[in-house]
Amino acid sequence: xxxxxxxxxxxxxxxxxxxxxxxxxxxxxxxxxxxxxxxxxxxxxxxxxxxxxxxxxxxxxxxxxxxxxxxxxxxxxxxxxxxxxxxxxxxxxxxxxxxxxxxxxxxxxxxxxxxxxxxxxxxxx
Length: 125
Description:
Blueprint: H1 33-47, H2 52-59, H3 63-70, H4 78-87, H5 92-104, H6 115-124
Helix pairs in contact: 1-5, 2-3, 2-4
């Protein structure tokens, strides 16, 4: 059984109970998984002091693909996520926990409700 040195911090370091600065501002929309994943990957890479090319090389992916993952443009496969997590010296479990913690910090009812999401919810029902 693998030991972890420390749990990863959520991608958004803002405390969950912190309110937006502008009281008239609407609550933030719930981020997509790929966006939260990208933010977490970028934060981990920067904490290591690495440029994108170094991490991409170790993960066996192109720098362009890693950049798209970090920007939330790509829906990477589990194999790609595992490769990048390994290149950043984190377990897939720790990465998943950090992303889930970030997503749990979003207030309830902030789920996206655009036409695409409504169609997806209808198809899921």
